[in-house]
Amino acid sequence: MIFLKRIIRAGWLNFVRNSTLSVATCFIIAMTIFLITSLFLLKDVTKFIIENLQEKVDVSVYFKEDAPEEGILQIKDEIAKIPEVKSVEYISRVEALDRFIQRYKNNPVVIESLNEVGNPLLSALNIKAWQANQYTAVTSFLENVPQKDLIEKVDYYQRKPVIDRIFSITAAINIIGISLFIILATIAVLVTFNQIRLSIYNSREEIGVQRLVGASNWFIRGPFLFQGVISGLFAAIATFFIFGLAVFLLSPKFAILFSGLNIFHSFLSGFWLFLLIQIFTGITLGVLSSIIAIRKYLEI
């Protein structure tokens, strides 16, 4: 215990002695921790947004004007059996017309044109898949159904850019987040590395005395390792409170943009996970940097 107490005391003195660089180190590590925690929270936000977008994306199958309702319902039953399909809704020509009128009831020009041409709408099946990438399988199935002669068109290819956009947005968010984390983590390691190197330089006389009196290698190395732990721990604690406050303040704004999304609730539900991630990331960055600096500049 005395050995450990002396290492902790020496590590704290090194941390305080280089206070300016210590603050800069904590700040960079805190930014890295903040980013990686944001990525974990962003997974829930992205999942919520993707699910909402997928709810709005569907594929419609339009049938020829003379297609019998029995044939359409047969296709509906066959599509419903596909594992990728979440739901299938049949909309008759009459129902499609009613929906169209309700949508444009305040537009007299559209209503007047509709009265002149009659009902130009076709019967349709609105198909929702479980995931956006499953619409390709649904479309392939429709191209091979026995009653495909009844089909006028499938609007998958018109909506495909929207579906692909969902995947590109998700992939871009993940790539940008991971790239920023790698960059900040590298900067954090370099800054902490320089902090430990400066501490070793400032303590060179003290280290020389310790060698002369027969101090063990770990007694000399220990304070510098603990200095890295202090930097990471302080950064993690500061980040946790700042991150929690930021999530609390931003939660109402996210709720306005995305109805039903409560990021503060997601933060509270993963409270201990976020805390552990931040502490683990901070201490790991601090200790890793210390080990690299000790191996390079502290010859025992």
Task: From the structure above, extract its key features.
300 residues; four-stranded antiparallel beta sheet; 2 domains; alpha+beta; Alpha-Beta Plaits
Structure in words:
By secondary structure, this protein is an alpha+beta fold. It has 2 domains: 185 residues, no CATH class; 100 residues, 2-Layer Sandwich (Alpha-Beta Plaits), CATH 3.30.70. The chain contains 11 helices and 4 strands, in the order ααβαβααβαβααααα. Strands 2-3-1-4 form a 4-stranded antiparallel beta sheet. The longest helix has 47 residues. The radius of gyration is 31 Å and the shape is elongated. It starts with a helix and ends with a helix.
Helical fraction:
over 70%
Main sheet makeup: 4 strands, antiparallel
**Major beta sheet, strand line-up:** 2-3-1-4
Main structural class: alpha+beta
Short recap of the structure:
This protein is of the alpha+beta class and 300 residues long. The protein is built from eleven helices and four strands; from the N terminus they run ααβαβααβαβααααα.
Helix and strand topology:
Elements: H1 2-17, H2 19-56, E1 59-63, H3 69-80, E2 85-91, H4 93-103, H5 108-117, E3 124-129, H6 135-142, E4 151-154, H7 156-202, H8 204-212, H9 217-257, H10 263-269, H11 271-297
Antiparallel strand pairs: 1-3, 1-4, 2-3
